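hey so i finally got around to running the thing on that chain from the lab meeting. sorry it took forever, my laptop kept dying and i had to restart like 3 times. anyway pasting the input first so we r on the same page abt which one it is
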Amino acid sequence: MPIHDFSYRHWQGQRSERPPSLVLGWAQLRLLVRRRAVKILLVVSAFVVVAYLGMLYVETMPRESSFGFLRGIPLLELNGKSLRVFLVEQRLLHYLLCLAAGAELIALDRRHKALQVYLARPLRVPDYLIGKALPLVVLLSLTTWVPALALLALKTVATASFAWLRTEPWLPVSILGYSAVLILSLGLVTLTVSSLSTSPRLASGQLVAVLVLSVALGQILSGLTHGEGWRLLSIDSDLDQLGSYLFAAPPPHDLSPWSVTAALVALCGGCAWILLRRVRAVDVVGGS
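ok and heres what got predicted. didnt touch it at all, straight out
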C-alpha cells in the first residue's frame, strides 16, 4: 500500500518577469471594461470622435462636391481652437468615467480587507497604487490625447502636408500636456476619495461631492469677495485655465499661470500624501 506524503510542497514554477503593477492593472482594466456604464461612456466618446472626423472630411473635401460650400466655416475647421473644445468640453465625460470606473477601486479592497492580501505578496504600496491607477489612465487616455493625436495624424495624411501645423507647431505638446495634467489630477483625486471609505456607494457620493462642491465653492466665494483667487479651489476652473494657456486661448478667469500650476501641484501632492497614509497592510483602529 503506497504511503502519501502530505508535507508542504514547494512551488516549482517560474515567476513571471512582468511588473506586478502591470499584472494588477491589466486584471482591473478587464473587469472595468465589462461594465455597462463604462461601455456607454466609451461609445459616447467615440461618437464625439466621429463628429470631428466629419469636420475633417468637410475641411478636406473639394469645393466642387455636394458639401463643398461648408468649407471655410471656422467652426468646421480642425485646429487648435476646435481641439481645445474637444478636450475641455468632454470634462463631464471624464468625471463620469472616474465615477463609474474609479470610485470603488480601493474602497472595495478596504471593505473586504484585501489590502492585507495584496501587500502580503511581493507587492509594494507604490506597485499597488500604480496598478489601481492604470485602468483610469487607460480609460481617460482613450478620451483625451489618443483620439486628439489621431485626429492630427489623419489631417496630416488627408492634406499630405505638415504646412497646416506651421501656424500652431505647439499643438501636439499642448494636447499631451493638458491630457497628462487632467489624467494625473483626476486619477489622484479619484483614488484618494476611494481610499477614504469602505463602501463603494459612499465613495461614489463623496467623489461627486468633491467634484461638484469644489466648483460651487470657488464660484460662491469668488462672487462674494469679488476675488478671482478663490477659483483656484475649483478643479474645473484650474483645468480650464490650464487649457487656455496651453492652447493660446483667452483665459476664462484672471488667474496667473503660476497660481494655477501651484494649485494643481498642491492638489496632487495632498492626494498622494493621503494615499500613502491610507493604503497600508494593517488598519490601526483606536480603542475606547
